[in-house]
Structures are given as C-alpha cells and as structure tokens.
Design brief:
mainly alpha; transmembrane; NAD; 0% strand
Length: 173
C-alpha cells in the first residue's frame, strides 16, 4: 500500500525511492507489524505460544530476515522518528512483558520483541551495526531454540530439572 501511495504522489513505484512522508511512515509501520515491534506486537506472543518450538524457531529467526532486509535497504527512506519510537516502546514492552511469564515460548516472544526494538533503534544510527546485531541475534537464538527442542522443555519449571535428563544442558538452568 505504501508503494501505491508513493506512485500516486510521485509516479515512482519503487519503495527504494519513497518521497511521500505518509508512504514512508506506512512502510515503516507495515514492516514493524511483520517484525512484531510494539505497538503491533500483540500477535507474536500468542502465535509463538500456540506453535511448536520448531515453528517458533522459524518465526523468531527466518521470518525476520525479509522485513529486516527491507528496513536495511530503505533505512534512509523510512520514518526515523517512527522507527525510534517503535523501537523504544518495543524494548520496554518486551522487557516488562516477559517478567512474570512461566511459559518459555512467551518469554522468548517478549525477548524477541525487545531485541527487535534494539535493532530498530540501531537502524536509525547505523545499518551495518543493525545487520551485525541481527546476525548475532540469529546465531544466539538458533542454538537456544534447538536445545529447548532437544530437551522438550516448555516451562521455567521444566528448565530447572533439565540437568537430570540432559547434563550438557545444565548451564541453561
């Protein structure tokens, strides 16, 4: 919809050449919704809680690549103020939302929201640093999710007894 608005205003269909401020903001909000940034984050904890850990791994890693790539490609075309506000709000929502959770998938979902908030904030300053942050996030999240898949852990209570069945995963507790 953002590219249609830009085409109507300027005659350009490319999202890499957004000149209309409303189209820039709309693109930023649409990508934020796809990423699960606050205030468009409400779908992420519930979807992650209702899915398996394998599906959750795809949601928190692979699904973030396309919208983050678009944000990195259009970082100079996006609304920096909107992105900074959404990033800051996501850090707060992710941090506070995960505090009283016992289900690991919800903790991971709120952690993902907070991490994406930091990434959105970093994009406003340096897209190379944001790419490094995304790569680090994926490299840390993947083994964590794979170890939770391996140990069949669903709650924080299950995590405390993981060492009896999988001594190699004891450092997680």
């Amino acid at each position: 919809f953002s590219s249609v608005m830009n085409a109507q205003a300027t005659g350009q269909w490319s999202i890499l050449q957004l000149e209309d401020p409303l189209a820039q903001t709309l693109l930023t909000v649409a990508l934020a919704m796809k990423l699960g940034l606050a205030p468009a984050h409400f779908w992420l904890p519930e979807v992650l809680q209702g899915s398996s850990f394998k599906t959750g791994l795809i949601i928190i890693t692979w699904q973030k690549l396309a919208p983050m790539t678009l944000l990195l490609l259009t970082w100079n075309q996006t609304s920096m103020l909107t992105l900074m506000m959404m990033g800051s709000l996501s850090v707060a929502v992710g941090g506070l939302g995960g505090l009283n959770q016992t289900q690991l998938r919800k903790v991971i979902a709120f952690s993902s929201i907070a991490h994406l908030g930091w990434m959105a904030t970093i994009i406003t300053k340096s897209n190379k640093l944001a790419l490094l942050n995304l790569t680090t996030y994926i490299l840390i999240s993947t083994p964590m999710m794979l170890s939770l898949i391996f140990s069949s852990t669903k709650t924080t209570q299950d995590l405390t007894t993981t060492w009896t069945t999988s001594p190699m995963l004891a450092p997680l507790t």
